[in-house]
Amino acid sequence: MKRRLFTLAAASAALAACAPFTPAPRATYVLVHGAFQDERAWSEIKPRLEAAGHRVVTVQLAGRGSQPGPVEQISLNTYRDQVAAVVRAQPGPVVLVGHSFGGITISAVAEAVPEKVRTLVYVAAYLPAAGLPDQSMAKLAESDKWNAFNKQRQNFILAKDYKTAGVLEDDIVMLFCGDCSPADQQRTKREFFQREPLAPAATPVQLTAARFGQVDKVYIRTALDRAISPQLQDQMLARTPVRKVVPLQAGHSPFLSQPEALANALLAL
After folding, report:
1. 164-167 vs 156-158, strand pairing mode
2. Count of CB atoms within 10 A of residue 239's CB?
3. What pTM does this model have?
């Protein structure tokens, strides 16, 4: 009897050794940039995720770069529909990542197509709450009493026609990349900052507990952030609990100041 058991065990081991290797499941990451920026914000993150074997799609939102168009025709729904189309085109649920204002955009997408989102990841991002009124980027930013935007200095500048907004050039580095290397600070000023269509930022996102509320969420908290203060980040997290909070000792642009740490956080979801 003992010999028979040994033989069966050996046979099972042999069959297991001959079975085809099944690799670990790979994810599809869809990366959404924030205000004043474009998809180049992810240039240090995309190759790191791809090197780990994952599929990565970066989105260039309307109104900039390769997605020009009349500014007055761009709305928050434009952003939502654009990203949702990318998400729907993927073969399965995606890891949907948003930086800064991108947190509003990915939340709207999750409300529209919750079944296509495996996890929402907020990177130094606005995290709206389901069921609350006026969850716009503008209102959330206005509630941030601790950030470094100075209303008297007016480092947030509105265009005369109220169609776009920008940041005072002298304050860009301080607000967004104070912990970056000198080279990345210059890159921030040279490549990333552009006029932002104002209508999407002023539009409240409408979210429900039944759809957005059921999607898995992770927040990457930036402790040195001067654009979205750690205090506001904590307030938003108190209103909208997430499965996991990943702390980074970084400013508002961890994709530049700490790309390895940010990529590892995304890989460890």
Report:
1. antiparallel
2. 12
3. 0.89
